[in-house]
Write a structure and sequence with these properties.
Elements (H helix, E strand, L loop, with lengths): L1 H13 L2 H73 L8 H11 L10 H7 L2 H6 L2 H39 L2 H5 L5 H4 L14 H41 L1
Length: about 250
């Protein structure tokens, strides 16, 4: 470039206007080309960074699918035990043994959090180039995913409040909590059994109603997991398509 400028200076001194015009055009084209190459490189780097964020989000969503499947399997077991407990309560309470009843009561209590990851997704959403270039289908699915996840968390919060304020106090007041807690993994090694039996009169309509509330929570969680799993799979597919376009 410095050589070209020296030639321009020489042509001006010689008043060679044709050569001056040619030199000027060459200089301008060279500058524009340099700017274009720089802009292209910056855009390529920007897309490379976007691809890294898309890949991280895709991996995070695959991990979330595994987490959803794990919670779903745990919920299936809890759902079966809730149904078995209510079927048992429909029988003559005098015939129900504590060894059968205690594990079922123990397993009726937990509320299993979905605990999904969102860090990579949040990084992707903060990317300006993603908001400019992402397909509407991918953006719609991500918004839908966040909406369903938020609704699921609110439903679980309601279930926790119901359990903590209604079911747990009822169990503590009417049942031998020590004996029930021995059903926890390793509980029999550290928790002594209670010194009093189950209050058989507590195995009636009120307790059954509390268990129905737990079954409703179970159904809500199952529905949320199914919907989230389907949306998560679709997001993974759309991200693959998005990355191929870049």
């Amino acid at each position: 470039m410095s050589m070209r400028l020296r030639r321009v200076t020489e042509h001006i001194k010689q008043q060679n206007w044709f050569a001056i015009g040619v030199d000027f055009i060459i200089v301008v084209v060279g500058v524009l080309l340099a700017f274009q190459i720089t802009a292209w490189n910056e855009r390529r780097l920007e897309f490379d960074r976007l691809d890294s964020k898309l890949a991280a989000t895709q991996l995070e969503m695959r991990e979330n699918l595994d987490r959803l499947a794990t919670v779903d399997a745990t919920l299936n077991t809890q759902g079966e035990q809730l149904a078995a407990l209510r079927a048992m309560l429909a029988e003559d309470s005098a015939r129900i043994s504590e060894s059968e009843l205690n594990p079922l009561i123990w397993n009726a209590v937990p509320v299993y959090s979905l605990n999904l990851r969102r860090g990579a997704l949040e990084m992707l959403q903060s990317s300006a180039i993603f908001t400019r270039t992402a397909t509407p289908a991918l953006i719609d699915q991500i918004e839908r995913w966040e909406e369903v996840f938020s609704d699921a968390n609110r439903a679980q919060s309601d279930c926790l409040n119901s359990r903590d304020n209604l079911l747990n106090p009822y169990i503590i007041e009417n049942f031998p909590v020590g004996s029930i807690s021995r059903s926890a993994p390793g509980g029999a090694n550290y928790i002594a059994p209670s010194g009093f039996p189950i209050d058989r009169s507590a195995l009636g309509r009120e307790f059954d109603g509390l268990l129905v509330a737990r079954q409703i929570c179970f159904l809500q969680d199952k529905a949320s997991i199914e919907t989230l799993s389907n949306i998560t799979r679709r997001i993974i597919e759309l991200i693959s398509e998005e990355r191929m376009q870049h």
